[in-house]
Amino acid sequence: MSPEIWTTIEEKFKKHPMLKAEAVPYTEIDAAADATGVKLSEDYREFIHRYGGAIVGSLSIIGLRKAPAMARTESSVFEVTNHFRRQGWRGVDEWLVISVDLAGNPIGLAKDGRIWIFDHDAGVVEVIAESFEGFLRKRCLKMN
Question: Angle, nearest 10°, between helix axes 26-36 and 42-51?
Fold first, then answer.
């Protein structure tokens, strides 16, 4: 991920520390991913390592820890993913649900690193970013 993104996120968390959880060791991240058979993109893995989970802009980024300002149901990306899979949401069987938009639509990280959303109002599954960094940049931080 670009230094510009990390710096922007760090500045926000310095002002509002309740928006981030705590760091997670790589060993814990990798063990959780291995146990579920999910390969994490390197930038998302690094985000979890640094922050555990966080709110960036208006969206929660679900990891392995819950930031104080996050909903109680947002403590584990694997639990959230399984929740949406059990409910039969389209597309989520192919991704890890890393966020939920303000309308309740799951946002997922696919194996190829692209970010998808299932918009239940429109009934469509579509790519919203080519990478986790792109998702943070465009959807969370509103940067060009």
Answer: 130
- Sign of the Cα pseudo-torsion (8, 14, 15, 21, in order): positive
User: How far apart are the C-alpha atoms of 137 and 130, rounded to whole Å?
Assistant: 11
For 16, the token pair is: 């509002």
Single pTM value for the model:
0.94
Q: What is the pLDDT of residues 102-123, one digit of tens each?
A: 999 999 999 899 999 999 999 8
Q: Which of 47, 49, 50, 24 is nearest to 98 (CA)?
A: 47
Which tokens hold the place of 73? 């149901």
How far apart (Å, rounded) are the C-alpha atoms in residues 59 and 8?
15
Q: Which of 72, 109, 105 is nearest to 89 (CA)?
A: 105
State how far the Cα of 66 lies from the Cα of 34, in Å rounded to an integer: 21
Phi-psi region of 103 (alpha: psi -120 to 50; beta: other; left: phi over 0): alpha
